[in-house]
Amino acid sequence: MENKNINDRRQDGQGAPGQKQSGWLKYPRKAMSGVVYSATIVIMLAVSLLFSFTLTAVVSSTGIELETLKKQDWYKYLSYGLYQVAYIAVVLLFAFLYRQKPREFGYRKTHPKYFVIALLAAFGLLFSLNWVNGQFIKLFELIGYTAPESSLPSLEGGGIVGVLIVVAVLPAILEETIFRGIILDGIKDVGTVAACLLGGLLFSIFHQNPAQTVYQFICGAVFTLVAIRADSILPAVLMHFVNNAIIIFDAKYGFLTNMNGTAYLIVCLVSAAALVGSLVYLIFFDKKTNRKKEGPIKPFICSALVGIVVTGIMWISALVTGIAG
Q1: How far apart are CA 117 and CA 233, in angstroms?
Q2: What is the per-residue pLDDT across 138-156, written as a single tens digit (0 to 9) for each?
Q3: pLDDT top residue among 168 and 24
Q4: pLDDT (mean) for 286-301
Q5: Which of 38, 35, 20 is nearest to 299 (CA)?
Q6: I want to staple 186 with a disulfide (CB 3.0 to 4.6 A). Which of 27, 30, 60, 62 is the partner?
Q7: 146/318 Cα distance (integer angstroms)
């Protein structure tokens, strides 16, 4: 393990004899992972603005109301799919510039137990935290906040396949490649605890959804912990997919929405036990991949600052919009 840490430091520009470097040159992995976070946000914002301008032009030229367009499946698919295009652009650009192979992104083989833990943790996150997040939303409602309604494309017939691809498969692969692959590779040496907390924070504000902040923060932290322990992002990809897929299936079949109070309470208790059990094992018994602080976080924060500020502003804007109605 010590040899691995030494190699990590050398890959990050540290430990080279006779060289005195400072700032970004001394910690290029941390700095570049921050650049990736900022670049992802900037490209997403640019794509979103371009989409909005195009819709405005369509509305002006055709006279069709915007609300009518938003009800169309093609609009809904674009609203989800365009963000995936932004993620792909960031990943491909990073891979091209740094000649990265899938293994460097975290696509490594790992012990099967981590996939079992990932499923248990995903089950726990979705059900037990759904209740916790509901209480958080109620607190927001006290100040007049109304959570925005999300609308999926049609799930009728084969439509569920298309929705699974754009809402579950692509986000699971691409978001995990960025967050638990590129970004985590740059911040993991600040220590396991700090990396998990920072990973959760970045993941939550990235989605710019006040109503889901607590849920996404905990999901981001747990995904990060699983990726560190497994030394692979594959279990985190599975967790992310399962989480989103269950939401989609519930939207189609309503097996959660229509569950009675007693059954729902039992499911929440069982899921909470699954989540706690998974975390206890990962935190207290599976500590071989624990990371100690080996460098400052400043290079990452400085290069990620643009993305952090932009997402922070957009999060506040979403909150204000939700309160203003």
Answers
A1: 13
A2: 888 888 888 777 788 999 8
A3: 168
A4: 80
A5: 35
A6: 30
A7: 10
pLDDT score for 25:
58
Please identify which residue in the block is written with the tokens 């849920």: 215
Residue 25: DSSP 8-state: G
Tokens of 256: 């959660």
Q: Is the dihedral of CA 10, 14, 15, 16 positive or negative?
A: positive
**pLDDT (tens digit per residue) in 217-250:** 999 999 999 999 999 999 999 999 999 999 899 8
Q: CA–CA separation, 44 vs 58, rounded Å?
A: 21
Please list the alpha-helical segments (H only) found in the chain. Answer: 2-11, 28-62, 66-70, 73-98, 113-141, 159-163, 170-176, 184-187, 192-206, 213-230, 234-253, 261-280, 298-324
Q: Look up residue 278 and give its two tokens.
A: 């998974």
Tell me the C-alpha distance between 289 and 232, whole Å: 11
Q: For CA atoms 96, 12, 310, 149, give the dihedral sign.
A: positive
Q: State the number of CA atoms in the 13 A half-sphere of 246 facing the CB.
A: 16
Q: What is the mean pLDDT of the chain?
A: 85
CB 165 within 8 A of CB 79: no
* Residue 312 to residue 307: CA distance in whole angstroms: 8
The 10s digit of each residue's pLDDT in 172-221 is 999 999 999 999 988 888 889 999 999 999 999 998 888 888 889 999 99
Say what angle helices 192-206 and 298-324 make with each other, to 10 degrees. 40
Q: Which residue has the tokens 């992310």?
A: 240
Distance CA 168, CA 166 (A): 6
The encoded tokens of residue 230 equal 């497994």
Q: Look at residue 241 in the predicted model and tell me its pLDDT.
A: 96
